Amino acid sequence: MHHQLVNGISDLELFFEKLTPELEEIFDMNQLKRDLGYLKQTMKKVPDI
Prior knowledge:
Layout: H1 2-23, H2 29-45
Helix pairs in contact: 1-2
Protein name: 22359_t:CDS:1
């Protein structure tokens, strides 16, 4: 389960990479990427449930 969450976050990062040019007009993509990176690091530290 834990690895699926980390992989899901990685997939989200790739998804946002593709959409970044369009979304940067609306959102602060750098902040969003930092938040995702932080979430991914946190998930790696959480033990498997």
